[in-house]
Amino acid sequence: MTPLDAEIGHSTALVVDGNNASRTVLVSLLREFGVAEVAQSCRAQDARRVLEQRRFDIVVCDYHFEGEPISGQDLMDDLRLTQLLPLGTVVVMISAEAGHARVAEAAEAALDAYLIKPHTADALRQRLLEARKRKRSLKDVIALIDKQAFVEAAEMCQARFETRGPAWLQAARVGAELWLRLGKPHAAQRMFDAILEIGAVPWARLGVARSQYDRGGASQARRSLESLLNEQPGYSDAYDVMARVLLDQGLPDEALAASREALSLTPGSVARLVKHGLLAFFYGDPGEAAAALARAARYGLGSKVFDLQGLVLLALVQFDKGDLRGLTQTWRSMTAARSGVLGSDRLRRFEAVIRVMKFLLERNVTDAVALTRDLIGEARDPSFELEAACNLLALLSRLTRRELRLESLDHDVLVLAQRFAVSRTTCDLLVRSLQTDASLATIVRDAYAAICAEAEDAVSNTLKGEPGEAAKLLLTRAESTLNAKLMDLAIHTMDRHGQNIDGVEVLRERAAALHKRYRSYGTQIHLGGAGDMRALTQLAKV
User: Fold this and answer.
1) How many other C-beta atoms lie within 10 A of the C-beta of residue 169?
2) Do 80 and 109 touch, CB atoms closer than 8 A?
C-alpha cells in the first residue's frame, strides 16, 4: 500500500483497544500505511502510563473497554486536562456509539478525528491524512509552544486566522487557548467571537464563556454556559467551567451539582475525580469527597494525572473517622509516590501532614507536635503555597480538637491568613480548612478585612493625588505580609501613576524582587482549568 505521506516512515503510533482482533487489524493497517513503529495496549489505564512516558505521532483509541472503569474518552480527557497530550499528536477515537452526543464528545476531546464502527481502512486512512496535514500546517506554531514561546505562538495563530492561512480554524483554537493562558481574555474572546460568526462551534461557545469569566463577568459567563448546556447536555468541559463560575458566585451546592454532571459523563476521569473530591471536601460532604478521592487513587495512583493533594484530603477524612489502618495505607502510598522526587518541598509537606495525623492516631503526641512546628516554621518560605496553608490549617484545627493548642497558634494562623487571604474566595477556603473552629476562623476573616481596608486606603490616597504614598504603603505591607493582593495593587499603582511618583524606579525594583520570590496566587476560584495547575490551586488559580 502507498505510504500515507512522505514523513510517515519516521513516525510512531499507539493503538489502544481491548479487543484483540480489532487491535491486531488496526496495528496491521498502520503498518501498511507506512508507520515505522506501532505499539499497542489492551487496557486504557496501561495506555495512560505509556502516554505519560512516551510521545507518539499517532494515537488510535477505542471508546469502550470491557470490564475497565475508564473509557477512551476518560483517558483522553485526563491527558488533555493535565496537558500530557502533545499538540503534535494525531488522536483518532473509534466508537460503536453512533449517537450525536458521543460523537460530539469525541470530536471535542480529540480535536483530530473520530470513526464510527464498523469503519473501512480507507476511512481511517483519509482521517489520518487530513489530520496529519493539519498538524504539518501548524508545525511552526507547535515548535514555538514546545519552546514555551507562548506569546509568539499566539500572535502567529492570530495572523494565520486573520489571513485564513493553512489550518486557520485549528490555529484560531490554539491561539485563543494561548491568549487565555497568557491572561489576555479580551484577545481570546475576539478570536472565539470571530469563529462563531462562521459557525456555532461548541468549543468556541465554551471559549467565549471562559473568556467572559476570566474578564470578571461571572454572570455573563453563566448565561453563556446555560445556553450551551441546554443545547449540548453531554458537554463535560462546559460543566467543569460552570462549576468554577457557580463557586465564584458563592453557590457551592450548585457548583457541586455541576461537578457531578461532569463526572457522570466521564466517570473514570482521574483528574475530574480529584477535582470533585476537593470541591466536596471543602464545600460538601466528607463522605462524598472520600469516595471520589479513593476512586481516583484506585484508578490513577502512580499516574501523572493523579494529584497527590488528593491523598492528603483522603487522609484527613480517614483521621476524622479514626481509621488508622486506612490512614497508614494512604501514608505508605504518599511515601512511595514521593520516593522518586525527594527534592520536592510540596510532596515532603504532603507526607509530613499525613505523618502528623498518623502520629496522633498512634498517640505519639510529642513527634506530632514537633513535626507540626516544623511545618509552621515554613509558612513564609517562597515555595509554601495556598494548598500548603490549607493543609496546615486543617492540621492545626484537628490538633485543637484534641486539646493540643500550640502556644503560638493565634499568631501562626494570622501569618497564614495575612499571606493567603487575597480574595473572598481564598479567605473562605482558609476558613473551611479550619472546619468549625470559630475562634481561628475569626482570625482569618479579620485578617482579610484588614487587607481589604489597606487596599481601599491606598486607592483613596491615589484618588487624592498621592499615588507615591499609596505605592509605598502597599509595598511595605506586601513585604510584611507577603499578600499578593497588596503586592499586585502596588505594582498596578506604579504602572498607572509612575510619572507622578518620586523614586518610582527604586520602588519598582523592590516590587519586582518581591513578586519574583512570592508570585501572585490570584483572586478567583477555578475548577477544571488548565491542566498545568495543581488540583488545589485550581480552587484559587493564578
Assistant:
1) 16
2) yes
For the sheet with 37-41, list strands across it. Answer: 37-41, 12-16, 58-62, 90-95, 113-116
Establish if 117 belongs to a structural domain.
Answer: yes
Instruction: Say if CB 292 and CB 283 are below 8 A apart.
Output: no
Q: What DSSP designation does 114 have?
A: E
Give mean pLDDT, residues 475-484: 95
- E strands along 422-472, which residues? none
pLDDT, residue 507, reads 93
Residue 187: the pLDDT is 93
Distance (Å, rounded) from C-alpha 526 to C-alpha 342?
29
Which amino acid, one-letter code, is at 246?
L
As for how many domains the chain has, the answer is 1
C-alpha distances in angstroms, 328 versus 73, 319, 349, 394? 33, 10, 16, 18
Q: Which residue do the cell numbers 498518623 mark?
A: 358
**20-40 pLDDT, tens per residue?**
999 999 999 999 999 999 999
Backbone angles phi, psi at 342, to 5 degrees: -65, -15
| pTM to 2 decimal places | 0.86
Four-residue CA torsion sign, 309, 312, 316, 322: positive
Residue 302 in domain: no
Cα angle value 517/519/520 (rounded, 5°) = 155
Residue 63: CA count within 13 A, CB half-sphere: 21
CA 64 to centroid of chain Cα atoms:
26
Are 486 and 455 contacting, i.e. CB atoms less than 8 angstroms apart? yes
Cis-peptide, bond into residue 118, ω within 30° of zero: yes
Measure the CA–CA gap between 245 and 58, rounded to whole angstroms: 35
State phi, psi for 116 to the nearest 5 degrees: -100, 130
Per-residue cell: 442: 475569626
- Rounding to the nearest 10 degrees, give the CA dihedral for residues 327, 332, 335, 339: -160
- CA of 75: how far to CAs of 41, 93, 305, 507, in Å? 13, 11, 10, 49
Does residue 142 fall inside a structural domain?
Answer: no
Q: Which domain holds residue 13?
A: 8-137
Place of cell 453512533: 98
Instruction: Tell me if 19 sits within 8 A of 62, measured CB to CB.
Output: yes
Distance of CA 39 to the CA centre of its chain: 29
Nearest to 218 by CA among 432, 542, 523: 523
Total residue count of the chain as it appears in this document? 542
Predicted confidence (pLDDT) at residue 357 exceeds the cutoff of 90? yes
Please tell me the distance from the alpha carbon of residue 278 to that of residue 287, in angstroms, as a whole number.
12
Note whether residue 305 is domain-resident.
no
Supply the CATH number for residue 25's domain. 3.40.50.2300
Whole-number Å distance between alpha carbons of 305 and 108? 20
Q: Note the pLDDT of residue 80.
A: 85
Strands 12-16 and 37-41: parallel
